[in-house]
Amino acid sequence: MDDFLMRPKVDFAFKEIMTDERARIGFLSAVLKIRPEDIKETRILNTNLRKEHEDDKLGILDVRLLMNDDTEADIEIQLTELRVWTERALFYLSKMYVDQILSGQDYDVFKKCVSISILDFDLFHKETGFYSCFHIMEDTRHFIYTDKMEFHVIELPKLPEELREGCSDIELWARFINAEGKEEFDMLAQKDPYIESAYEHLQVISQDREKRLEYEARQKAIRDYNQMMREAEERGREAGERIGREAGERIGREAGEKHAEERINKLHSYLIREKRFEDLERSTNDGDFQKQLMEQYGI
Questions:
Q1: For 30-54, how does the pLDDT look when each residue is reduced to its tens digit (9 = 90+)?
Q2: Is 221 exposed, middle or buried (0-12, 13-18, 19+ CB in 10 A)?
Q3: Cα–Cα distance, 78 to 66 (Å, whole number)
Q4: In sequence order, what are the residues at sequence separation of 6 or more whose Cβ sits closer than 8 angstroms to the Cβ of residue 21?
Q5: Strand 42-44 vs strand 63-67: parallel, antiparallel, or unpaired?
């Protein structure tokens, strides 16, 4: 057994950690500020959102949970900056909310829907706190319009440099997700029994050969995407020299954001769902084979 440990903020690793019910309970308790003992049950749901029409945008969530049979939570991890993140989170939560009702049903079937975004970039540049929570609220008197939707945002780069005595549970979880070294994992596991369970599960999956291959393929996909984004921005800068720097940079960023990440993520989702792990690994190293698979899936 080697000392390799997956990084929890890589979405594949986080999804695997969330298969452990004790870890799920601890994380939801910290984010939603409820006692762990009040969470009677958590279940992992299908992450594919229903399409009503052929031309509807496909929605595939990272982790979708049902808690106590009355609250659905969508947990999303994003490592690279996406300027339209707020719009994306709103789209996914709205889609998840509407997905609960079928034709002929009454509106009382709707469960509370919670969006939890774990971001490795600054979303709110003028704010310094790493954690934010949003509700639908009246502008001047500040009462809740409905509690059926709420948004939680964790910005990992804004974590305090030093761990403070008596810090919140959500800070401990954010530090665990952001951790990379065994020493830090060990320290955090000693401070919270639910993080300890998550860490134990992380150690197990880190030594699983098949899961390690999937994790490394996902990391390779992230690096490929980052490279594609850099190249897209470079092309944008070159175009900007001809038609103006500002317009060129916008074209480069928007072209990369629209095409690169979603195509690669969609392909990997299909391959993992169908357990085509060898093809998954090969596609991350063979560009021609990746293009062939994308054509096969019509991506």
A1: 999 999 999 999 998 877 544 444 4
A2: buried
A3: 21
A4: 42
A5: antiparallel
Contact 121, 105 (CB under 8 A): no
Do residues 16 and 213 lie in contact, with contact meaning Cβ atoms separated by under 8 Å? no
Residue among 86, 85, 62, 72 at smallest CA distance from 13: 62
Residue ranges of alpha helices (H) inside 109-244 are 169-178, 182-191, 193-206, 209-243
For the chain, the structural domain boundaries read 11-206, 209-297
Phi/psi of residue 119, nearest 5 degrees: -115, 135
DSSP-derived letter for residue 58 is P
Q: Under DSSP, is residue 30 helix (H, G, I), strand (E, B) or coil?
A: helix
Q: Which two tokens stand for residue 37?
A: 């003992």
The whole model's pTM is what?
Answer: 0.73
Q: Based on C-alpha coordinates, what's the Rg of the chain?
A: 20
Q: What pairs with residue 78 in β-bridges?
A: 119
Residues with Cβ within 8 Å of 289's Cβ and at least 6 positions away in sequence, in order, are 279, 282, 283
